[in-house]
Specification:
The complex is a heterodimer. Helix content of chain A is 70%, strand content 0%. Chain A has six helices and no strands. Chain A has helices at residues 3-62, 68-83, 89-103, 108-113, 118-150, 153-158. In chain A, helix 1 runs antiparallel to helix 2, helix 1 (3-62) packs antiparallel against helix 5 and helix 2 (68-83) packs antiparallel against helix 3 (89-103). In chain B, strands 12-11-10-13-14-15 form a six-stranded parallel beta sheet, with helices on both faces. Chain B has a four-stranded parallel beta sheet with strand order 5-7-8-9, with helices on both faces. Chain B is elongated and about 65 Å long. The two termini of chain B are 31 Å apart. The chains are: A mainly alpha, B alpha/beta. The interface between A and B is medium-sized, with 32 and 33 residues.
Amino acid sequence: MLAGETVLIDVILIVALAVLVGVYVSWRAGRLDRLHARVDTARAALDAALLRRSSVALELAACGVLDPATSLLLAGAAHDARAAGEPTELAESDLTRALRAVVGQPDFRALLNRQGNADDLLAELEATARQVFLARKFYNDAVAATRAARRRWLVRLLGLAGGAPLPEFFEIDDSVVTGGGEGRGSDMPHLTG
Amino acid sequence: MGLGHEVSVISPADDDTPLPDYVVSAGRAVPVPYNGSVARLAFGFLSASRVRRWVKEGAFDVLHVHEPAAPSLSLLACWVAEGPIVATVHTATLRSRVMHASAPALRTALEKVSGWIAVSEAARTTLVEHTGGDAVLIPNGVTVRKYEKATPLPGWPGPGGALGFLGRMDEPRKGLEVLLRAFTTLAADRPGLRLLIAGPGDAENVIDKVPEALRERVILLGQVSEEDKARVYHSVDVFCAPNTGGESFGIVLAEAMAAGAPIAASDLDAFRQVLRGGRAGELFETGDPDALARAAGRLLDDPQRRAELSAAASEAVRIYDWPVVARDVVQVYQTVVPAIGRVGVAR
């Protein structure tokens, strides 16, 4: 066999290998990119859910059924949560605690029943509480997957993450509902039963 | 659909099976042994291309897949789709060696899921162990209304008492054998006691396991219609769920509860949860025929306890009623939908 031919075969093999490696790396980069996109969307959903929750809390504070002290407490917590600009773990947890204190009052439901649109308000509060719970769970799940992917050696070696910041978990107390416990069907917060 | 959403379902089906309008066939399902029982799974090129076309033409807001970690259409759909995906895990026992998220194709598909739902605590644990991801717990639903009221089959439960079983007869993990042994014990000193068995499977094998003298007291219905299923639950004094494992939620149990049947069930995690730790049904040691015989015997002798359990079961099953469950699932959809666009086909 001629020497030139061997070299040619070597070159072809090397090029093929390079192409394969390239395809693999770009596929891995694509996966990571998709994970980052998932984190971003999940974060947007979480922020939207938190915002909705604070508006329902404000509405509840303003509806005139609650006593002034409770109203003030709730409005204060809701306002703090919104004033932070981007939701912060501390302010959101405080709002959760305020809501829990309000909803947990022994005669809360009876109180709301006297008001015309109070049932709607309660249902909406329940829905937003669930939304926050879900959104936070999905967000943290996406964060965990992304962080795990970024720890892989290939990703670190080649800097596949680019300039994307390492996503942070969002840990808050979001169980507005007291009670529940064993035998619940779903683990979503239910204000009623 | 009742909430005003449009739904399209893709499912394996024989080409000549009549399907509702919203179901799209993905071609024939091939029964293969999977996860300890025979599952009907669809895979291969034809299925993949049908899924691709379905995802592309549907332009869905959300894609909801079930059991995407199994070799199934769901996995294919996850693989080809891009956008908001919700996935539900049902099984409590995944094959760790296969699953270990080592297959990159599998991982790529599963990474795309924006929201995981688990139907039981056990299913969630499995998911956490194998993919490191977390899920929200939303149980399967039952149409309570469909089972609530039904006329018992003529002549049932009868004066001597009746035990009931529903499920595949030839699948060991359904535990029919445990029940047959328990029945043999019980029937010895209860001359009128009968056993009603409904479900597909080989009848010969079943009847062989019962002593000859008792055989006429074991009634095999074979596969029954949905309507008759409800009647079966109403036809027995004690409904037995002797499953020996692998059960993640126990839809049969939930149906029996909806029918208000007094229940004796294996002490599996999933069952204990559905039965509220034993308050909505007796639990007995899993796989132990004597324990089942004792539990069922106690119930047969105590009509008041049966009535209590029946009431407790009807109450406990409310949270599994479809309208309640569907509302939670829709909220999951709403959470994953916003910002991102529709489901499309990945490049």
